[in-house]
Amino acid sequence: MGKASHLLFDCDNTLVLSEKLAFEACAELANQILEKFGIDDRYTGPQLLTDFVGQNFRGMVVNLQKRHEFELNPEELETYVLMEEDRVIATLERKAEPCIGANEALEKLHQDGKYGMAVVSSSALRRVKASIKKVGQDKYFPEHHIFSAATSLEKPTSKPDPAIYLYSCKVIQKEPCECVAVEDSRSGTLSAVRAGIPVLGYVGSYDGEEEQAEMAKLLKATGAKVVMNEWHEFEDCLAELEKIAQAEKAAI
């Protein structure tokens, strides 16, 4: 990697403050599933967020099945995935807000025109589009540059599977080393790293300095080259990441 040509942004809690809203909306549905199978455990939105941040509802249910030893048939799973999608979108269309400073950073990137930009998310495509439209970010991303691990792929998956990043690079006709992924979660960071994409971590959506510091440490341990606390740091952090990548390349 020298200077990147494309920036690939995660959506939830990277561009849009949506994770808490989404997990609150889907906790009730997850609990309905557990009740159906006679499982006593129940989850709150924050508990689901802690356990499954960065994953889509499909991935979360797959893991719940393993954890609690029950099984949904494919038709049941699809029904619940669509139900969750509808509930979350309705909530996001009412309440979603941009991550602090994200809109300003995107506007500057758009005006400068130095980078191509895409959204690469685990969440369903309808949800991603609803989120960025609600907060006024849709104007920065062509529709064919919005990618969903739950919807865009022939076989739906979720981060940390690298498939959605590899697919995105193929569509935009760029090598992974020509891109930078911006991610806020371990699963998202791992997805990009596995795809060979340098990662710029973002922790500004986490609550308080202590939690942000813990997440910064985790993202770096997972493979993020640089971590920013706030969006106003983006340009400096991107330059630092490119400098690190050039040094690593020169050392080979």
TrEMBL record:
Task: Name the Gene Ontology molecular function terms of this record.
Answer: phosphatase activity
Sorted alphabetically, which InterPro entries does this protein's record hold? CbbY-like, HAD-like_sf, HAD-SF_hydro_IA, HAD_sf, PGP-like_dom2
A Pfam family cross-referenced in the UniProt record is Hydrolase
Q: Which domain of life is it from?
A: Eukaryota
Annotated TM spans: none
Q: Which PANTHER family match?
A: CBBY-LIKE PROTEIN (PTHR42896:SF2), XYLULOSE-1,5-BISPHOSPHATE (XUBP) PHOSPHATASE (PTHR42896)
Q: What is this protein called?
A: Uncharacterized protein
Q: What's the source species' lineage?
A: Eukaryota, Fungi, Dikarya, Ascomycota, Pezizomycotina
